[in-house]
Task: inverse folding
């Protein structure tokens, strides 16, 4: 990363958060429309954030959603050691009653904050941490 951009980003935690969140969701196989749904923001706004993360200012709802995505990722990294599960779990059919035999991604893409919270709690519960 360019040093000037890195310096600007470190002065803007919202930009750091949205960039990290987008990178994680890409690894999960989310496209920009799905990222926008997850973050509760219109796709053009998300595109603007990603084009200039150093200028990004997120509202409280978007910050909370970014936080939940980062926590889901952290929980998966704590529970799994292999990248296939860390990045693939979100797309795997899940027999847990919470997911009704669907992948967690389906629940996330319903777009509610409550679902992000529920997925986060479920993943942390796998390690007995919730």
Result:
């Amino acid at each position: 990363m360019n040093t000037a951009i890195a310096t600007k980003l470190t002065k803007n935690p919202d930009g750091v958060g949205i960039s990290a969140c987008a990178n994680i969701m890409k690894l999960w196989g989310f496209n920009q429309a799905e990222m926008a749904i997850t973050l509760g923001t219109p796709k053009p706004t998300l595109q603007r954030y990603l084009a200039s993360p150093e200028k990004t200012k997120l509202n409280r709802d978007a910050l909370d959603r970014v936080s939940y995505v980062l926590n889901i990722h952290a929980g998966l990294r704590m529970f799994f050691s292999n990248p296939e599960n860390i990045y693939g779990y979100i797309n795997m059919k899940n027999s847990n009653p919470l997911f009704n035999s669907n992948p967690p991604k389906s629940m996330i893409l319903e777009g509610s904050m409550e679902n992000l919270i529920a997925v986060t709690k479920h993943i942390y519960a796998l390690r007995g941490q919730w």
Remarks:
- The longest helix spans residues 60-79.
